[in-house]
């Protein structure tokens, strides 16, 4: 872990600047409610549908902030990242909107659909072997060749400031909240939430939701330092990555609690949401509802904001349907 | 067909009254767009998400208008209908909100999920055999016993006035439309759309979308009189019923065109919408996008409103996934 003095911690003003910068390029996503899910949980739930962003995930906020914050000289060289998930497509999308190059290093084993989406948004993919060594070597080479600005999926102050704009909208769209729940993987969304709410509404409890089978943030939180797992495995495949120093800063300072849910609980909550909210969302987004259902007494009678983080799902293989 | 003099044709004022009456009980559903679907079709598409109504369908508008328009004496006896679809659950939902009885006659072969939903909303189900004779006999008996006011799923002026409120909101939420496309079964939504737009925005073309395999409205439209099919079969199971005199009045006077789509085209459009709009919707709601994709030249460059009519889907058997 780097020394704190190395880190640039984004500020509330950075979040406000980010919001102004990205507003023309992102959607102010709607907030949905369900009487049925309220009755089931005993809480009053508000769901912010970031799955309705054009590229299907909240990550377009941070990516757009990074891309549109570049000066013209850097912008000409474009951006670069390594990711096989929503950050790759969201960064490509943002770069496409600015008309600059985006280079993405992806394991050759990444799903074809993910590669197709990146390419649809004009992203240039360089494939690596599915190992950390290969990814780092390949990425260093790509960056040296292109000079693209590295936009980390979450351990980047511009990205965290961008993600923080979601909670700002959410607070404007609801008449006060007691708690905010978001899934935690690398911690980008949770960090943005902490950044915004710690100034805007410090009375709101911030709860992170994590899969039992990838509970490194939970264990880090209990231990008081970052614990990174080696290759965790969960259906919530947006939540596999570990905390890094910047996100740990926010998690350790501002998160009230982290709760975990099992694979079955996640799948049940996912199906419940599809059925009653009628939105298509990823397994990762179901972890918050899963932990609310599992810890009802903690949420009962409260006004609870839930961030639905993304909606890019392989519709051919849904976890509750047994295939051939 | 009854003589025109028997019919009570709802007026624009009836729609305005309906909107005031139902506003506390329904959702003002959001309008969604997708850059991807715009590029694919060459049109500018706006989707009104009536699948986001609490009971999952636009039919809550008409049902609520009928239920809350009853005087207290009639209300005490409740309402009654025959339906195995969204009208049954939406009428039960509206009756529950007013605290009055709702009796529903349903074929004993109706899906268990549909029965469960009606019961969850306090509806009382009387089962009949899956034949028109049995349904009519059973319904007559139930109505005689309960005195419940018959609320037809679509051939009822209160219902059509209620459905018309959807287009009024839609016009408020968009900055002008050139066309409005909705699926057509019995014609309740299309009739409400005609009722509203023929006064509010007569320049908007009204297009109905119908499955090829249940194209009785299309053939009626071409023939100039109602043609009813005997037991059509399509995946768009919300569109199986025929036009009746009231809906025929609106369709024959105000609809510009009816287009049809094949089963495969409907399934493709359904999957496309789930993937890119990230909403859970019924096969019936995919018929509009299917006919737009099939007749691109007719819609290119136009601002087109599409009504997503319902989102009550059996998530265990999606049409593009082959089961065991």
TrEMBL record, chains A, B:
Keyword Thylakoid: no
The protein's name: Serine dehydratase
Alphabetical list of Pfam families matching this protein: PALP
Keywords: Lyase, Plasmid, Pyridoxal phosphate
Matches recorded under InterPro entries: BHydaspDhtse, TrpB-like_PALP, TrpB-like_PALP_sf
Protein's organism: Tateyamaria omphalii
Record bears the keyword Coiled coil: no
Cofactor(s) the record lists: pyridoxal 5'-phosphate
GO terms for MF: ATP binding; L-serine ammonia-lyase activity; magnesium ion binding; pyridoxal phosphate binding; serine racemase activity; threonine racemase activity
Top-rank taxon: Bacteria
Stored CDD domains: Thr-dehyd
Domain Tryptophan synthase beta chain-like PALP: 22-310
GO biological process, alphabetically ordered: D-serine biosynthetic process
